[in-house]
Amino acid sequence: MYIHICIYIFFFGNNRIPIDSSQTQELKGWLENNKFGQFFQKMYESGVETLDDLHALQTENDVMALAGSTGVNMSIMFRKKFVRCVLELSSASSTNGNYTTETLNQDDPTEETRGLSKAEQKALTDLTSAIKEHSVQLKTTRDDLANIKKQAEDLRQKISELFDKAMGVLLVRRKHLENSINLKETERTEMLQKRIDDFQKSAKNLLKVMCHSPKKKIPEFCAKNIVYDIKIKV
Predict the structure, then answer these.
(1) More confident residue, 176 or 139
(2) How far apart are CA 56 and CA 36, in angstroms?
(3) pLDDT tens digit string along 204-218?
(4) Among residues 102, 41, 43, which one has the least CA distance to residue 68?
(5) What's the domain range around 13?
(6) What pLDDT, on the 0 to 100 scale, is given for residue 214?
(7) Element spanning 77, H or E
């Protein structure tokens, strides 16, 4: 259909609708309302002079031919939006309210996929599926990492508790050993001291007996020296 418009301009260019006519201005207003105002001049030069000319573009290929590099040369983003808007305009003005077979490429087109070709829709579907799959894998990985982190934290806590418990047991054992050693040292010291006291007492008694014996007396200074010698040896 767009090619037919170009042929019409080539042969009947002198009969074109003036750019300042009400019909052409209506087209300009529609373009501006839909954010395509910057393409009005190129569109007029390409042969689209009124909204009826846009209504005549019934298929996606016709609209893409107008919006593509052979037409007004819109960017990719503008092309997709322009195709959607023109097809909606054509649908609203159609008597049966249906698109052609080429534009009805899916049962219930959404806002994101309406106006896209089958190849573009397939690419978008594949991309969406891949994103969902990787999102699930990423969530699974995050969950696994969270579980590993929790297990590591639980293990660290358990090891810390066991270490504290072991240190407590060792400290108690050390205290018991120290008390036992101190007790044995005290008992041994007391026992030795008692033996020394008993030995000294026995030695003094023996000296007293010897000193008072009529048969054999020991000089007083000798007795003192003997007791002193006993203390030194002990």
Answers:
(1) 176
(2) 18
(3) 888 877 776 655 544
(4) 43
(5) 2-105
(6) 59
(7) helix 76-93
Answer whether 36's CB lies under 8 Å from 82's CB. yes
CB-CB contact of 211 with 221 (8 Å): no
Same domain, 202 and 152: yes
The per-residue pLDDT for range 119-175, each reduced to its tens digit, is 777 888 888 888 887 887 787 787 788 888 888 888 888 898 888 888 888 888 888
Task: Flag whether 116 is in a domain.
Answer: no
Kindly state the tokens that stand for 43.
């569109």
Q: What tokens does 125 get?
A: 């579907």
Closest CA to 23 of 42, 48, 6, 1: 48
The verdict on 222 and 143 lying in the same domain is: yes
Q: Is residue 119 part of a domain?
A: no
Same domain membership, residue 81 and residue 132: no
b/e 51-78 (16+ beta carbons within 10 angstroms → b) = bebbebbbbbbbbbbbbeeebbebeeeb
Domain count, the chain: 2
pTM as predicted: 0.35
- The token pair at 29 is 């207003």
pLDDT in tens, 91-128: 776 544 444 434 444 444 454 555 567 777 788 888 88
- Rounded Cα distance between 234 and 229, Å, is 9
What single string gives the DSSP state of each residue in 101-137?
TTT--SSS--TTTTT--HHHHHHHHHHHHHHHHHHHH
Output the six-digit token pair for 72.
């007004």
